[in-house]
């Protein structure tokens, strides 16, 4: 079903308003409670006068909570769009951002950085994680390429095999760790936004924004590919180029997201499904709506992770799994798809 441009803009505008509401609610919750009116006052004053945040409330909102919320929103949008792209590329409803091994390569890079002491520097672990993911992307792409084309089944098998191999190495490294590094590794593998700052946001923003823009430019091609590759070719789509670009850019935004927060499951799997069930399969809407809903979902999940057992912080991946699985089952039962 192809939607009108007016309907796409309307739905995306409503989802954007929902995202703003989630951000404001998230800014109000934490170990130190700040009222919604106070949050708005701090944000408006900062927007007008700029400069350093005034008072403890301003410091909490602008220096602690806001960068964490913005980073969670970016990561949620990236994972949701990557999941949407991989589901279209592989034509597999169970595809998610981690299915082609990007997560295992990123995790191996992060674990290696922790074990050699690079995690002591602010950019050591994210850089190692991103490099590990990029190496995995190139390796899977090389194995999955058949002749001049990209065979999706071969690509999928290559990703699964390489992911299993890297996961085995990670398990071996974890088994020989006998100090405080073990808790760091386990927490990172389950998702962690506790080290969020504006520097991380500025670093990954070009990758994620640019990647989502490129993926969205192929939304018409995804719509035609859903009818079959032969049909898409007959209608003028360069299917092989589309598959390569979708794989590369979806993998890159996944790598950028994972590098700053660790592995967070379910976002890239359930959000595209939820959007598809609610609004239909048109990728012109599916991609931006997935980005907005993914951002809202992950911000909400991280808010729960940092407040429900305060001052102890839960891994956000545990929260996304706890809420994501029942929500997905509910949608399936409700829509019968």
Any descriptors?
337 residues; mainly alpha; ABC transporter involved in vitamin B12 uptake, BtuC; 76% helix
Description:
The chain is mainly alpha-helical. The chain has a single domain, classed as ABC transporter involved in vitamin B12 uptake, BtuC. Helices cover 76% and strands 1% of the residues. It contains 14 helices and 2 strands. It has helices at residues 5-28, 36-49, 55-90, 102-116, 124-144, 152-175, 181-189, 198-217, 219-225, 229-234, 239-261, 267-279, 283-307, 316-335, and strands at 145-146, 149-150. Strands 1-2 form a two-stranded antiparallel sheet. The longest helix has 36 residues, at 55-90. The protein is globular and about 65 Å long. The chain starts with a helix and ends with a helix. The mean pLDDT is 84.
């Amino acid at each position: 079903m192809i939607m009108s441009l007016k309907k796409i803009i309307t739905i995306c505008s409503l989802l954007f308003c929902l995202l703003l509401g989630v951000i404001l609610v998230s800014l109000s919750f934490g170990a130190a409670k700040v009222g919604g009116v106070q949050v708005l006052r701090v944000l408006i004053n900062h927007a007008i006068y700029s400069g350093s945040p005034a008072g403890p409330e301003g410091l909490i909102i602008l220096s602690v909570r806001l960068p964490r919320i913005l980073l969670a929103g970016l990561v949620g949008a990236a994972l949701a769009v990557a999941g949407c792209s991989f589901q279209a590329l592989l034509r597999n409803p169970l595809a998610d951002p981690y299915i082609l091994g990007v997560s295992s390569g990123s995790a191996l890079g992060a674990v290696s950085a922790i074990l050699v002491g690079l995690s002591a520097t602010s950019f050591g672990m994210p850089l190692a994680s991103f490099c590990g993911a990029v190496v995995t992307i190139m390796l899977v792409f090389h194995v999955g390429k058949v002749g001049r084309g990209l065979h999706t089944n071969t690509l999928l098998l290559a990703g699964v095999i390489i992911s299993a191999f890297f996961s085995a190495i990670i398990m071996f490294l974890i088994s020989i760790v006998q100090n405080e590094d073990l808790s760091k590794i386990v927490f990172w593998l389950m998702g962690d936004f506790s080290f969020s700052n504006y520097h991380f946001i500025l670093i990954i923003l070009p990758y994620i924004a640019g990647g989502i823009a490129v993926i969205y430019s192929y939304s018409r091609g995804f719509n035609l590919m859903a009818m079959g590759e032969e049909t898409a070719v007959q209608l003028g789509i360069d299917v092989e180029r589309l598959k390569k670009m979708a794989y590369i850019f979806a993998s890159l935004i996944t790598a950028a997201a994972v590098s700053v927060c660790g592995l967070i499951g379910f976002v890239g799997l359930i959000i595209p499904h939820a959007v598809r069930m609610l609004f239909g399969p048109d990728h012109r809407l599916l991609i931006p709506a997935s980005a907005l809903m993914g951002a809202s979902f992950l911000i909400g999940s991280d808010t729960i992770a940092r407040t429900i057992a305060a001052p102890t912080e839960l891994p956000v991946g545990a929260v996304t799994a706890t809420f994501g699985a029942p929500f997905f089952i509910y949608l399936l039962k409700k829509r019968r798809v």
